Amino acid sequence: MTPEEYEDRPNAHHIAIKKAVADFLSQAIKTKKRKTVAGYKLHLGQFVESIGKIHFLDEAGKTQLYAFRDFLAGKGYEARTQHNRMMTVLILLPDWATDEAGFIPGAD
Predict the structure, then answer these.
(1) In this structure, is residue 3 part of a structural domain?
(2) Is residue 101 part of a domain?
(3) Domain coverage including residue 59
(4) Comparing 11-20, 31-40, 47-56, 60-69, which segment has the lowest mean pLDDT?
């Protein structure tokens, strides 16, 4: 496949959430303690589970963050635990944490 053919593919410029998670974890393994990486893996796995049919980072928005929060609440996690797990997800999504994506607090 030529670069031009690749560029013409419908999802050529999208980053798959599962790939972003795998890349994030592979980098975390190099700099974080094993226990921290295990926590990241758990939190991001729960996020992927909670977002359903969303496959690409640029499809994720406030709705998916709220769904993740509600998912955690439904599992019985306390507010502080929900907050900590949301922060892990927001670390994964720095490029999308913009006013346009709706992740900036108070941007409503």
Answers:
(1) no
(2) no
(3) 14-96
(4) 11-20
